[in-house]
User: What shape does this take?
Amino acid sequence: MAKRGKRVFILGGGAALGAHHVGAMKLLEEEGIKPDVIVASSIGVINACAYATGGVPLLEEAWNHFRSLPLIVSPSLRDNPIFGHSLFSADRIQRALEEYVDFPKIFDSSLDLEFILLNLSRGLGEMHGKRDCKDWRELRTIMRAGYAIPFLFPPVRHRGEWYADGGFAWNVPLDYALSLKPAEIFVLAPIASALPYKARFGSFYDFASRVADVMWRTIGNMGYIYAPIEDGKVGGVPVTVIEPGEEWSGFGPLAVFQAYPAKSRRLMEAGYRDAKRALAERRRNERRGTHAGKSTSGLPSPGADAAEAPHAVPSAPAKIVSLARHRR
Assistant: This one.
């Protein structure tokens, strides 16, 4: 368990939109803001491992070269709907991603990593941390499980049970991050919570697309969009949300799964701008707190407010924290 006073980053899932994390982390690093703990799901798991290997420069390099579709569409005689449990094999994408990950280095580093995985054997979302791994090979296994998108890629076997991408269970685990009793939390959510206004629907397809957009937005951000964030805090803990604008909103197979350098660069630039805007909003909240006679540090002492933080968010994710912590 993380000690009191640590800074927690949450890297939410969002497939190709994960490039937004990189720009946000670059701006935060320029401001002297670095994580002590990263809680991640889906693409956030990959970004967390690359960051732990080589920081923001390595993340930028990876996203500036990454093309997803040739790696995703990987037919296999073993991994297919007839003989296996997926449309494609994950071998090709694993080899490509792991060129940017040094598992022994991550295992020995001081940066704490926590991944949300979907335990298909038990039907539960579970948190699996680096500290739970016996060696770097187990760390590699839980990373692979972290982005094993159901139907696209086969589930991953770990300690006798089957795991997949945890974003389907809990994409932005704010409640779990609060349970670590942190000094502050930065939520890097690559799925936009704001959708553009639509006055009418021209066809059934148009209507169905809108419903898909709303479901994608809601499921992707469930962990924080209903949290009672007031003046940038939940239960006394400063929470800074960095997310893209509505221009990056909506669900579509190509929009979500297709990554290529030009698109990734636009997302990284957007992440940088959105992080700058989020920090400016945080400072405005702190100034308002000053006028109200409150502390402006943004770093609450580890007192009663921080201790009560886990109870300040919706109860459904809290159930995952209490019942589905990794079983040893």
Notes: The radius of gyration is 19 Å.
